[in-house]
């Protein structure tokens, strides 16, 4: 009992998540840094292509995210077999969806690249990158599902170890393919795509090894056909609003990147560089938010309602402190960081113009993420979906067009729109968490079950 309780403390959950996410981010940063040695055009292509991949990932992340929350709740409620069944379905369904997406991305790379109104010279690069990296979407689906499942059992170190290995392999292969070193052919952006594919394959193999023994009863080949309609319904009940929420975010980001592409390749490259720097700044806060979600889901499943409520505040305040500090550091050293990625004075100038706005943006993002994840942990995912649809499209995308394109504010206008979106959603989720709607409902249900159990026990005693 003590071991299980300690496994779900905020610190033990958060630090491996932070290391894992940081290393995954470094994977992207190394990509950006090394690709920048090819050309700024290549950087723009990678940035836009990754937005496309993220939009498609929603299809399997809907299942994985809903399953992750349900697994933590079931483990908290001591229903380990149900948690195991949920995990199996999450992995198998994600693999099927990922396989379909792999075929589509490989076969339709050029038409998909044309959707984003890229400059003509960028289209061949985009087609190559999308077809190679996209063909491995099944690996992305498996790593996402496996990491989510393993992490929500309380084992956050496993995905962290995988991230370390994935980064080492990716950096070595990137170096070899881009510069023609270590016996590798010099393949430029094509080599980066191949490197991404190989590192994900190895990560999938390692995560599958961990998945086999993630639960009390080991996985077997025959488990691949396990399907429980009721539990899958529970996954979708939690997951589909999360999927719509994630879809809304990714599609609005794609829309915003399309606006940037209209502005020009320099604006697109500057946003890609700034996105990398902002992600580094936000990573500690994001790891806290994910850990809080796992902890609250576990507490909620165990019936510790008051502690679950307090955990939402505690985690978010810690995250706000960390993100605020990191934002100040980023502001102070932003120019030096941008200089690592590009020597283009115009791109650096565009990035620097957004540093103050980034300082304002990050706390709002943490507020939204912290309490938003707390709501998701107790199953209150529809509320997040509704406010996201309104705010992301009406504020983030809508204001980006008005300020960035129509009024000519450019990249700065897009940042102002994102700030308004994050703070609006942040305020709304704080209000919702304070209302404790789902927590009070669970508390009432537990009390009712306790009274019913006492009545049955008394009746059996009288009968005896």
From TrEMBL:
Recorded topology in the membrane: Multi-pass membrane protein
UniProt entry tagged with the keyword Calcium: no
Segments passing through the bilayer: 52-73, 85-109, 129-149, 161-180, 192-215, 280-303, 315-341, 385-403, 409-431
Subcellular location: Cell membrane
Primary residence: membrane
Keyword terms: Cell membrane, Membrane, Transmembrane, Transmembrane helix, Transport
Tagged with keyword Transmembrane: yes
Family matches, as PANTHER family: MULTIDRUG AND TOXIN EFFLUX PROTEIN MATE FAMILY (PTHR42925), VIRULENCE FACTOR MVIN (PTHR42925:SF1)
Name of this chain's protein: MATE family efflux transporter
Organism: Paenibacillus phytorum
């Amino acid at each position: 009992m003590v071991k299980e309780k300690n496994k779900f403390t905020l610190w033990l959950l958060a630090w491996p998540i932070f290391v894992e996410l940081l290393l995954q981010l470094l994977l992207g940063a190394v990509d950006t840094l090394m690709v920048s040695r090819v050309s700024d055009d290549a950087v723009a292509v990678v940035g836009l292509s990754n937005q496309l991949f993220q939009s498609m990932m929603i299809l399997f992340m809907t299942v994985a995210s809903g399953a992750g929350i349900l697994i933590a709740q079931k483990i908290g409620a001591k229903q380990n077999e149900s948690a195991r069944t949920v995990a199996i379905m999450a992995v198998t369904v994600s693999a099927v969806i990922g396989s379909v997406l792999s075929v589509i991305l490989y076969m339709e790379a050029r038409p998909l690249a044309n959707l984003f109104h890229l400059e003509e010279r960028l289209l061949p690069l985009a087609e190559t990158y999308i077809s190679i990296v996209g063909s491995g979407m099944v690996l992305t689906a498996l790593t996402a599902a496996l990491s989510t499942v393993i992490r929500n059992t309380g084992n956050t170190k496993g995905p962290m170890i995988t991230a370390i290995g994935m980064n080492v392999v990716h950096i070595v292969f990137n170096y070899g393919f881009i510069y023609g070193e270590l016996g590798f052919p010099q393949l430029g952006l094509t080599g980066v795509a191949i490197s991404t594919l190989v590192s994900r394959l190895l990560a999938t193999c390692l995560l599958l090894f961990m998945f086999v023994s993630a639960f009390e009863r080991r996985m077997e080949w025959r488990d691949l056909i396990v399907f429980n309609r009721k539990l899958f319904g529970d996954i979708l009940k939690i997951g589909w609003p999360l999927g719509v929420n994630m879809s809304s975010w990714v599609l609005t980001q794609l829309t915003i990147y399309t606006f940037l592409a209209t502005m020009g390749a320099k604006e697109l490259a500057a946003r890609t560089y700034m996105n990398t720097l902002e992600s580094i700044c936000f990573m500690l806060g994001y790891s806290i938010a994910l850990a809080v979600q796992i902890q609250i889901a576990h507490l909620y499943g165990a019936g510790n309602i008051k502690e679950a409520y307090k955990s939402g505040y505690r985690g978010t305040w810690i995250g706000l402190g960390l993100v605020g500090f990191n934002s100040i550091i980023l502001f102070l050293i932003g120019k030096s960081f941008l200089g690592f990625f590009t020597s283009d004075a115009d791109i650096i100038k565009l990035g620097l113009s957004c540093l103050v706005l980034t300082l304002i943006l990050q706390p709002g993002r943490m507020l939204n993420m912290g309490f938003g994840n707390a709501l998701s942990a107790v199953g209150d995912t529809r509320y997040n979906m509704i406010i996201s649809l309104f705010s992301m499209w009406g504020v983030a995308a809508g204001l980006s067009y008005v300020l960035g394109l129509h009024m000519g504010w450019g990249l700065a206008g897009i940042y102002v729109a994102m700030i308004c979106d994050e703070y609006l959603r942040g305020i709304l989720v704080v209000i919702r968490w304070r209302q404790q709607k789902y927590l009070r409902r669970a508390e009432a249900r537990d009390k009712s079950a306790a009274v019913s159990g006492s009545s049955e026990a008394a009746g059996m005693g009288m009968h005896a």
